[in-house]
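Lay summary

Proteins are chains of building blocks that fold into shapes. Our project writes down both the chain and a compact code for its shape. Here are two examples, one after the other.
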Amino acid sequence: QIPPIEQGYIQKSNMKFSPKVTSLAALALLACSCDAFEQPAIQSRRLPGHGKNKLMNKAKIQQPFDRNRRRGMDNNPLFTSGGANESSASSSSPSQIESLQNLAKSLNPFGKNKDGSSSTTDRETIVGSMAAGLAVSLAMVPEAVSFAYVAGVSPLVGLWTTVFLGFIAATFGGRAGICSSASGACAVVVASLCAMHGPSYLSACAILAGALQIIFGGYFGMGKFIRLVPHPVMLGFVNGLTVVMMKAQMIHFKSPTSGNFLSLASTTGKSMYGLTALTMALVRLIPKIKGLNVIPPTLGAVTFVSVLAKVLNIPGVKTLADVSGADTFRGGLSVLPKLSIPSVPFTWETLQIIAPFAITMAAVGAIESLLTMQLLDGIADDGKAGSTKKECFGQGLGNVASGIAGGIGGCALLGQSIINVESGGGKSRISGMSMAIFLALGIVAGAPLLASVPIAALTGVMFTVCQSTFSWSSLRILNKIPKLDAAVIFLVSFITVKDDLAKAVVAGVIASALGFAWKQSTGITASESMVKSLNTKKSGKWKSYKVNGPLFFGSTSQFSNLFNVKDDPSDIVIDFTNSRVYDHSALEAINNVADKYGEAGKKVHLKHLSENCGNLLTTLHGGDRPYELIEADPQTDPVYSIASDMTSSA
């Protein structure tokens, strides 16, 4: 609601504004903000009645997603009546121009400080984010190059994919701190497509995969189902992806001719092992050295090792130019990609060729990106939860752009995203955007400087990332958690390393769901007792079965075995106070039990079922079963619905 324009202000400024124009201007400012509707910071609070050691950690206590919550709107002049706090009745409403000015100050891509103040002029955040982006851009080069080789395209294709995808995904993605690039998970999926049909089909596949992510993840919001991923699956994903990252670095320690690991006696082996170890040590030491702790440790380590190798002229040092080829770092405008629609026939046959690869790539990329976002929500410790819709939209738009640029598509990378956050880039989207910009400048203008960076320095950075990414706690708790959860961790890790992430997550979710269903199915019991007759006209005792545990498709068999039809009296009561009927299979199980008692000339009285459940039972058997009676009590009956196709007809 935009406050009315003050006539005095208009007369002084000699400006005329229509309500439609000013409303559109406010909405335009609102659209420019990437963080305007992120969840407010979750403040640490002390549990009532507890001591100092019971402080709840704001990184672990996340507010549940609520579509109806007005997140970030309470203090926004666009969403408050009159643009001011209504509690201060004496204060006059600001003018429309002042409201727009306040709105422009509050909506900025840099987020807000912890105290709620605007951080537009926070130079430390901007500079820190740009420095983190520079560090990540260096770590992106060997990954993008190696994944380009996996997909079967030129290294330049992988680098430009990282530029376009990284910039757009960082701008429109789910949260600050995520870094996207050509990824191994996606490259493996489309490698056979490139081998059979060529790079043009690969770019068309990236465009189609991006469109699928925008439609299904961004528009329909299917990314929300990532919340169904259990914690053991997350641990398996992290551990498996760490092993994949480690395997990707091992190639740098092998001889290109023999394929064996480099010997410590060789010149190349000494430089590779030594500089890698030095880089790992510097990444850990720089934050502890006074005066150097303001420098992102990864950037400082890579810069120091690069200068050291150049000044001392260390023999046998392998650089990015040696791995990617001199043509990749020739620099100049000639390396810029050409933006065009991939040259593939627009036919049904082409769609049949690329669709299976695009669907798999879209699923793999979305799953890895959303899991990475969930992990960064806890690592960043800023009290904000990323948006699954925005993340899917940003990844999809980035894949479409990379396909138009002749790229191969990709997704968020966990290792580089952790480097970014640990280097101070988790506070602003500028870090991901600057990563892409610095990488583009390096390819075009700083090619010789970028080409001289030792591979050992970047490998050392990735090793430290692997060490901090792997969930070491999962090894300590293996004998303390249920065997099923331990098996799921191993299963997801194994499939992630052997096959791909999408299959691993699906297999882990299915295994966890089946395990949960089995555990719940064996937990249904019933306590027997004799109660007074519910019929006031008849005296005597009835037998009561008080059911405990959920009644669903997995527990129907055990539910049927709880009753003794032959020896029970003529009237029995089935009490569902401590139970809940979940689905159509449960309704059938209740009716089957009633049928058995009906055949024996006995009656079943059902108590404490929800109204919806009672209506469905009546609809299911047509209401012509005198031996199955529903004893309704609106004051004590629970209220819930059942997952049944018959709900609409009830």
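And here is the second example, written the same way.
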Amino acid sequence: MPRAAFTEGVSDTDPHASLEKVLDEDNLKWVEAQNKVTVDRLGEIRGTKTYERILEALDSKDKIPAAYEIGDKLYNFWQDDQHVQGIWRRASLDSYKSDNVQWETVLDIDALEPPTTGTAKTWVWHGSNLLDDGNFDRCLISLSPGGSDADTTREFCLKSNSFVEGGFEMLEPAKSQVGWRSRDEVLVGTDFDGDGECLTDSGYPRVCRSWKRGTPLSEAKTVFEGEKSDISASQYAYTDHGVAHEFRVRSLTFYTAKYWHRTPANLDKVSAADDDTPFTEVPIQEDAQVSTFGSMALITLRSDWTVSGRTFKQGSLLSCKFSELMASDLSKAQVLFEPTASRSLESETATKNYLVLKVLEDVRSTLVTYRFDGDKFVEHSTGGGIAVGEDVSVQGLNRFSDQDDRVWLWRDGYLRVDALDIGDAATLDKTQQVKTKPGFFNSDGLTVDQHFATSKDGTKIPYFVQRRTDMKFDGSTPTLVDAYGGFEISMTPHYSAGVGIGWLERGGCKVIANVRGGGEYGPSWHQAALKEKRYKAYEDVEAVAADVIKRGISSTEKLAVIGGSNGGLMVGNMITRPVASSLFGAAVCQVPLLDMKRYSHLLAGASWMAEYGDPDTDEWSFLRQHSPYQLLRHDRLGIAEDGEDRVADDKWTCPKVLFTTSTRDDRVHPGHARKMVKALLEDAPADKVPLCLYWENTEGGHGGAADNKQRAYMWALTYAFLAEVLGL
């Protein structure tokens, strides 16, 4: 059956499928009732000291305003108690470096007419796309109703600080891709006809059109099409170090793509539809990624690659002339980074003359800088390792990386408050600190350790422990284990006022588990938990929990697990796997995937099949083994499955659990959490589920909250639950 033929909320065997109907009146009443149960149990959150302090930290005017340069001004998006939805503002660099920054408001989101989409009541800033023609006067601004991934786009003038009347605008919220090609042309992908034909099965654009200024969107000309089965397809053009590039990309899966490239005839004078310069397929592996540094190609590998008589290792970063790449000649290619068992490439930042690599070694950061010397990169410097539990990141100061070599260096850590330095990529050891923020919680008497647990197959799993220095190792400390383990995303140290206020300062311990599926050790670490190997990530979490208990840091009745999105899937497994559910006394499951039989038919789910597998094929045989909804109903509760009897697991008891999600989440469907909660409350015997609470925000998108008050509420609610069930 085609994926699109499945209907939301319809199932022959799932009695709770109707909860997938997001805005159904009865379902919203059910949500309201569950929210009330949760608030009645935990008490009114607003007005509590934890809520007020987290909100104060989120709204603090002493936070460091992240900024980038456009023209001769630094631009920053800011939210606080006076600017709930936020303002986009600017200041000079000299003013920014002072203690009294003189900001000029560019756009006040709170002053806009509110959205009228579904339950959305506020706008959420989704960023700006700046026209790169040297005038620094036009951008495309994206705003989302209520925080959904679907957003609106309007052209904005940075000289008049107003939307451009008669300019490019897309006012109907959609998952769109819009980018400048020239001042009078944008390349756009969206649901052009409103019937889904121009979207992929994953709900993202697959048709790209050239839209000229002064014409209606309906007259835009198609320049590129992907397949319905792709994740997305797009065409984009830009100028990098004076060299014009234009790419077409079909994202085949979350990790594979096909690229085509051309040097456009004249971006300013010849439209994409009129340019007859042919595109040529870029000859790289489908799981590799390609970018540019002027006339050079930068290639990141997810698997080993043998070409031109050479073999390049998985996780490497290569550089060669783009013309040589197109000729499949990598005989002269430079290896800018090659991984080891403990070393991986986290990111790279380009400037006018330098390339700065952020390298992780056992989840500790080091910076490696290369200088570009005409036709090759020359290693310039390597910074020292960062202390345990701390981190450093590099960001180009200018919105366009090829303008100059100035950079921001962000430094923080679990117990180290954010600090911002300014410097030159040539001399990263001689930066100047320009901003710090105050500590929002008392870190005196706190420390960070790093340990390694041994997983079931012998793999060493690193984890960080944030704790009191005088903590007793007798298992009495309420401890929260946080993990993600997916999509090659690394969990590196960062300062969290919410964790400090809501947990550490009150005597709790926080554990960050760097489990497989993440990116902490590069592509191989991620691929070790893909698809049929997903269970490895869950065994890793179990190993960390067992090690935490063995060390006397905590004990089952004092130990909780937390995770969101893919991490929510992890938590779902922790409360339904026999081993895990006996290790944890409590759990917090945020914006989760849980029904892996249905996930690929709900919202953006089809785009993640390269990570999890396709449940409509024989891959369901392994997906079934880590699908929490089925594990709960059939393996733990003994409910018949597909006409076959199942036996209940008498030894299983669900840890006390709080589920949180958002009605406006159009990435991970709220039906996952709704159905799981309904099954726990109605299908399970009461003695098997000592406590199951649910809270669904009516705004917020996949982040769960649309503004600081909602964010503070969500986290204060979470810590109130954890404090109650773990006895903090």
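What can we say about the second shape? The longest strand covers residues 232-240.
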